[in-house]
Amino acid sequence: MPEPGPVTAETAYHLIPRGASFSGLLAFDGDVRIDGALDGRVQARGTLRLGPAARVRADIEVDELIVEGSLEGDARARRRIQVEPGARVCGRLEAPR
Asked: What is the sign, positive or negative, of the torsion defined by CA atoms of 68, 27, 47, 91?
């Protein structure tokens, strides 16, 4: 099975845009990008990208996680977790790669 393409601003669905906030359980299938604030829990099938402006306090379970912004909480990815330069992570990360 080929590797999925990158989740960019053009290919991902922006669920929480910059300046917006959400509190609660976030569940989705597909590729989602967050650039705002999230406080709660994420359970999803797909890729979650936390953009540079993202401020997330949540426990996360996804296929793939890409962190560019701030994440406070534990994250589990079924495939991989990628932490970009400048990202801030406080919590436990678990992934095969």
From this structure: positive
Cα separation, 75 vs 64, whole angstroms: 10
Question: Longest Cα pair distance anywhere in the chain, in angstroms?
Answer: 37
Say how far apart CA 61 and CA 55 lie, in whole Å.
17
| In contact, 44 and 58? CB cutoff 8 Å | no
* Residue 97 burial (CB count, 10 A): 8
Given a contact cutoff of 8 angstroms between Cβ atoms, the answer to whether 18 and 34 are in contact is no
Cα pseudo-dihedral 51, 52, 55, 58, rounded to 10? 40
CB 40 within 8 A of CB 56: no
The string of pLDDT tens digits covering residues 13-71 is 778 999 999 999 999 999 999 999 999 999 999 999 999 999 999 999 999 999 999 99
